[in-house]
User: Fold these one by one.
Assistant:
Number 1:
Amino acid sequence: MTFEWKEAYSVGCAEIDAQHKALFQIVGELHAAMLGGNAKQMLGDILARLIAYTTRHFATEERLMQASGYPDYAAHKALHDKLKQQVLNFQKEFTAGRAAITVQILQFLMDWLQHHIVGTDKKLGIYLRAKAAA
Ligand code: FE2
Ligand code: FE2
């Protein structure tokens, strides 16, 4: 599994790209910590950091969408809300000792990120650039 951000993920907005890079990096840290057999406490801390950063990132995109009058705001925000809920549910299970951080979980996160960036965030990036050029 690779956690490297690559140019193909660029949405053409520096602020969003920087946050995506940071998200990839945190998922990579979680992967390294999992492979290293780190204590649950440490995994939990990285997971909490990932959730906090994701929340902040979604808020940034939602602010940019609202400020620019983005027509697909509701649908895009619904995708953010759904993922956030899924991750929060997972965190609850993890904290309660009913779920573990596995390769499957990390794969799910990376798949979601990659699909969301390429399929959804790129459309926002194109809109923001067109808006800025107008
Ligand atoms: Fe998004
Ligand atoms: Fe994003």
Number 2:
Amino acid sequence: MRKILLEKLERERVLSRSEFITLLLGYDEALAERLFERARHVREKYYGKDVFIRGLIEFTNYCKNDCYYCGIRASNGRIGRYRLKPEEILGCCEKGYALGYRTFVLQGGEDAGYSPEKIASLVEAIKRSHPDCAVTLSVGEHPREVYQRWFDAGADRYLLRHETADEEHYRSLHPLSCLPENRKRCLYDLKQIGYQVGCGFMVGSPGQKAEHLAEDLLFLHKLQPEMVGIGPFIPQRDTPFGDQPAGSLEMTLFLLGIIRVMLPDVLLPATTALGTIHPQGLERGMLAGANVCMPNLTPERVRGQYALYEGKSEADGKATENGKPAGVGKALKILERRMDAVGYRVVVSRGDCRRGLAADEI
Ligand code: 5AD
């Protein structure tokens, strides 16, 4: 039965809600292996053995929201707040460009101290210095006009995880001021404007059931995003969910495989959270269908303060030399070696989504 569901998923690129639930509850290692084999097959059809890298710049950890799972939530008084100056962000891009990065992801909390105009100027400055690079924004929910302004400034892509497609579950993870319908409105606005859009969710977030994950998968089918970011939930001690259990490596990998088969040409990162819960998380992610990595280019000085969850900065800065952080160049070398070891190769490329390309253009 479960084998038949995998075949149907590959053929039709979607299942019914109840079929997704059956597949998710029917998880076992043999089924996962079979899924990963199909996921690698479709991944390689579109992207070969290439691994795209994105230079992640966490430029502000101020946030007006108070999401129950997130370490940079507004009411967490135990972390120091920082906001990088445009010159410093441009410096990170400069360094990253020299190393071979051709996409920069500007990620931050919803920070009123960084006005839409300031972000637009920043995007313009990066595109001026690096016209051959893509700029991805990941700064939360905003009015459509603001998204349009940033797109006109040159932003290419936008990441906004939907977190969970189930409204009731969404309300259990967020305060009343965060509305599930607004989240989805943002994603559709971004798509209509013309961004390459990424949504996504945490695996094993508190209260998550197979039913919710089935809704998430159906939402992906409906939105048809160019990118999907998923990673395990990892508790952060200074949040209301600080004592909740983490999501599992196995279920995250299984979902990566399902998403790759559903959306064969999607850009799918092996996320930092996946690399945090298991020492081989990034490699295992690639072998389950992922094709993107997002190494951290945030200056060492503030990196520990972007504490979304426990153990994040350690995973980011794992590349140490004599106990000291080894810097972004060495970290990339280590990543390249890790990818090589499982048969993949990090490439110098913008790494755009290959959707809609004819077979001979791939
Ligand atoms: N564990 C895992 N992922 C988290 N995020 C926020 N907090 C956590 C956590 N405790 C994810 C959210 C958010 C993204 C930037 O990080 O999905 O969208």
